[in-house]
């Protein structure tokens, strides 16, 4: 990441590597530490611009290593509220791509053209383990990009799953639309937290950043540790809309 105060004068440089941390905050802010361990905060003029930047940082992290052996998880949008845990039931909008030639390639599955969202219970093993674990800690309305290496995307016997091209890196953009928390199991069985399901499709747009971001100088904002390492044993994902209704 290169930040400039003018066209010729660089403010700071941050080398992106597989363990690089970009912390996404509400209101279109993202923060990171540069190579001198100074913290920088970038404010974008639109949610779309912030999401695209955050997504490209995650893709750059993937491209920084010749052998990806764990799931990369990057928040694109963060929201307020309780985080989802194992046992919670979710309704999720998602798009899945093959990672080809170091960029997002062919879309192999999406909820965009389907009548219902994907329904799943975290920890149930109905989707690939790397995909499911990567959603832990999300909040209703939040969005993440997950880059899943082949070792975390293979199928297992007895589990319905997407089994083609199992040697491919898979990329998912996931958005939590509704949540039913296990700790609220005394409810009537309906979503205890819901949002209009007519929200925009998670399929990313091809537009470039709409405006130059505003950059603030180093702050004393505390470092937020990254997501914990994810286990590599996994199951496979496929058409869950009919399986989990």
From TrEMBL:
Pfam families per the UniProt record, alphabetical: FKBP_C (PF00254)
Alphabetic keyword roster: Isomerase, Rotamase
Residues of the PPIase FKBP-type domain: 87-180
Biased composition (Polar residues): 232-245
Keyword flag Isomerase: yes
Catalytic reaction(s) noted: [protein]-peptidylproline (omega=180) = [protein]-peptidylproline (omega=0)
Known EC number: 5.2.1.8
Classification via InterPro entries: PPIase_dom_sf (IPR046357), PPIase_FKBP_dom (IPR001179)
Span list, region Disordered: 184-245
PANTHER family with a match to the protein in the record: FK506-BINDING PROTEIN 15
The name this protein goes by in its record: peptidylprolyl isomerase
């Amino acid at each position: 990441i290169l930040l400039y105060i003018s066209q010729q004068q660089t403010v700071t440089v941050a080398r992106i590597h597989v363990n690089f941390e970009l912390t996404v905050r509400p209101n279109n802010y993202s923060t990171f530490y540069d190579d001198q361990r100074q913290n920088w905060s970038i404010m974008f003029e639109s949610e779309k611009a912030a999401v695209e930047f955050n997504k490209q940082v995650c893709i750059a992290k993937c491209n920084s290593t010749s052998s990806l052996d764990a799931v990369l998880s990057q928040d694109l949008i963060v929201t307020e509220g309780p985080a989802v845990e194992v046992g919670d039931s979710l309704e999720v909008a998602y798009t899945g791509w093959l990672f080809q030639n170091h960029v997002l390639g062919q879309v192999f599955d999406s909820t965009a053209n389907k009548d219902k969202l994907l329904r799943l219970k975290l920890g149930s093993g109905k989707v690939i383990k790397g995909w499911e674990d990567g959603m832990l800690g999300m909040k209703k309305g939040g969005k993440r990009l997950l880059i899943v290496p082949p070792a975390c995307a293979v199928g297992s016997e007895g589990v319905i799953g997407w089994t083609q091209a199992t040697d491919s890196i898979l990329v998912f953009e996931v958005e939590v639309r509704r949540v039913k928390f296990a700790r609220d199991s005394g409810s009537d069985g309906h979503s205890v937290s819901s949002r209009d399901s007519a929200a925009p499709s998670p399929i990313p747009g091809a537009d470039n950043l709409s405006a130059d971001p505003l950059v603030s100088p180093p702050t004393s904002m505390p470092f937020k540790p990254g997501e914990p390492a994810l286990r590599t044993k996994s199951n496979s994902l496929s058409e869950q809309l009919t399986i989990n209704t």
